[in-house]
Amino acid sequence: MANYNIFSFDNSVYVFGQNSHGQLGLGHNNHINKPTLLMQDPTIKSICCGHSHSMILKENGELFVFGDNSYGQLGLGHNNDINKPTLLIQDPTIKSISHGYYHSMILKENGELFVFGYNKYGQLGLGHNNDINKPTLLMQDPTIKSISHGYCHSMILKENGELFVFGYNKYGQLGLGHNNDINKPTLLMQDPTIKSICCGSNYSMILKENGELFVFGHNYYGELGLGHKNHISKPTLLMQDPTIKSIYCGHSHSMILKENGELFVFGGNSYGQLGFGHNDAINKPTLLMTNKTINFHQIQQTSIIWNHNNHTFYPKEFKERIYTFTLYLKRNQVNTKLKIPKFVLFEIIKYI
Regarding beta strands 32-40 and 12-17, do their DSSP bridges make them parallel or antiparallel, or are they unpaired? Predict the structure, then answer.
């Protein structure tokens, strides 16, 4: 959902892309069109990007924030943008960090879930609609299994299958059967067979262990895959296929990956994001390719911690694009001090 990228490899963090709010952390607000070193640190645990603000978590629990802070989404107690990594908190019990467009969440090992930032639609779940510029406790529950964010709505899944939703609901993306915003975590369903949850910009998906895939919310681009463009305010069965391995929700397009490597795509396609060589939207799951090496967890994040073997997951088509772009760099004698590994070039390709 972001127009910039932060990734880590070889114990170093590199950044590039849009930088209007200092979200690259380089000490200035100039856009950067090639990977640029931000820091060297072998203890980076995770990196997270919102629309224009960033977080970097280290193994010792140091959490650094930078970028857009218009709504207090950096949690620093003020609303000034920050263009350098700035320590928010140090706590070795931090389990994970996550972002919506303009709000942030911190989950600790004991189940304490802290929220802060933009809250116009109640997406912080605090029972009001006031923005918050400091980490504020939403709940404490050690059984929290996963959290997913859209533009301004959130889903929290617990180990017992309780699925809570809150935030923006204009298109029914909370699945509650109406279009009213909700400012407190509200139980949508309880089903211990829920395998995974995923939020797009203004829509949502729920995948169960038996392969039932439910969709709801915004559907103008056909991103729900139901064969029409009507918004849906209740979880609606898209398909049942026990071989579904994982699901992916983008801004307005979706992907379904099956165990046999079949990759189905649908939704908005203005920029060719469905990969078919045209720009027409598609409102039903349509087979793009079959490749058993595809692995969503490598491409689903807006910021990625790389290792030397990640590039082997990319299908042949992606590798061919990387090879072509490598030749482009050589033939045009691009002057860069950074030797860019091939598995990183794919990330650059997404922005050209």
Answer: antiparallel
Total of domains in the chain: 3
Whether 218 contacts 199, CB under 8 Å: no
What confidence category does residue 12 fall into, taking pLDDT thresholds of 50, 70 and 90?
confident
Q: Residue 15: what pLDDT?
A: 87
pLDDT digits (tens, 9 = 90+) for 27-85: 999 998 888 899 999 999 988 888 899 999 999 999 999 999 999 999 999 999 999 99
Strands in 250-342 per DSSP E = 253-258, 262-267, 282-290, 304-305
Please give the pLDDT value at position 295. 64
Q: Which residues contact 82 (CB under 8 A, 6 or more apart)?
A: 22, 65, 66, 67, 69, 74, 76
CA dist., res. 208 & res. 196, Å (int): 7
H-run or E-run covering 322: helix 316-331
Do 254 and 230 belong together in one domain? yes
Residue 26 in domain: yes
How far apart (Å, rounded) are the C-alpha atoms in residues 205 and 244? 13
Amino acid at position 77, single letter: G
Domain span including residue 333: 319-352
Same domain, yes or no: 154 and 290: yes
